Amino acid sequence: MARLIPRTDLTDPVADRKRHAERAAASPAPDTADVEIEDRTVPATPDVAVRIYRPHQAQGAIVWLHGGGLVMGDLDTEHPFAARIAGGSGAVVITVDYRRTPEHRFPAALDDAYAVLTWTAEHAAELGIDPRRIAVAGHSAGAGLAAAVALRARDQQGPPIHFQLLNQPGLDDRQQTWSQRHFTDTPGHDRDTISAVWRYYLGSAPATPYAAPARAADLSGLPPAYIATAEFDPLRDEAIDYALRLLQAGVSVELHQWPGTFHGSLAILSAEVSQRQLAALISALRRALVE
Fold it and tell me: pLDDT (tens digit, 9 = 90+) per residue, 6-51?
């Protein structure tokens, strides 16, 4: 199955976005019968488009940040996954159409994500949610953004974040971990692709902790975390290292390392391990925000 997945090398961002959108459109349609869906615009500089998924009687909210190497992905490509997360978790899911690279470098995507977090907290009553039950979450590059949002909210005394969920996060531009050095030809992601992600995002600017959260010296005071990794993923070890450092800083962490998986293999919904991964993600969000 892994051999059938098209390679994405990010040499042509426009073509990569088109192929990514085509693959997402071919995904099985989620059941949205019990979820109200609305497109909105969050006032910011510039404004940010969001899509809101409201299950019945939802109390918590998830600011969800899509993957795609900060180059690909949008509200439509994330729809199948976001709808499943909302329906299963029982929380409002707000997907963010953040600005993408290489057209918009750091901190554009982070600014967009943080603006949506702030808007969510300020409009909690309108959204029908408890402002004390807001999570930031994402996959891959989106998970790295979620970690950066949590750091920024802590440092700037921003909206309180109740929980962070980081699924296969990209956290470290230095690419010096064992998995980064050895997984040079793995499905979904390899070392060269990740190098392109960071090159597009940072340009010639040095990385800061808000760009690459693994560079943060102090992880204390951050929200409890659920972190999931894939066995054959260059990003695996930086996520595990981050989880251990959070624990050592006194932050509660649930860490899952999924054997036999690779970056993005969760998209293969027919796989039994993918079903378990998705169920675990949803369960973690439900426990944190609903139960």
Answer: 677 788 999 999 988 988 888 888 888 889 999 999 999 999 999 9
Residue 266 pLDDT: 92
Give kind and range of the element (H or E) at residue 238: helix 236-248
Spatial CA neighbour of 250 closest among 221, 226, 228, 227: 221
Percent of the chain with pLDDT over 70: 98
Distance CA 286, CA 138 (A): 15
Span 193-250, pLDDT tens digits: 999 999 999 999 999 999 999 999 999 999 999 999 999 999 999 999 999 999 999 9
**How does DSSP assign 118-173, residue by residue?**
HHHHHTHHHHT--TT-EEEEEETHHHHHHHHHHHHHHHTT-S---EEEEES----T
**61-65/134-139 β-pairing:** parallel
Phi-psi region of 273 (alpha: psi -120 to 50; beta: other; left: phi over 0): alpha
| Residues sharing a CB contact under 8 Å with residue 238, sequence separation 6 or more, in sequence order | 169, 170, 171, 172, 177, 179, 180, 214
Which residue numbers are catalytic?
140, 233, 263
Q: Residue with structure tokens 């690779």?
A: 262
- Give the amino acid at 186: T
What's the distance, CA 81 to chain centroid?
11
Residues in a beta bridge with 61 = 92, 134
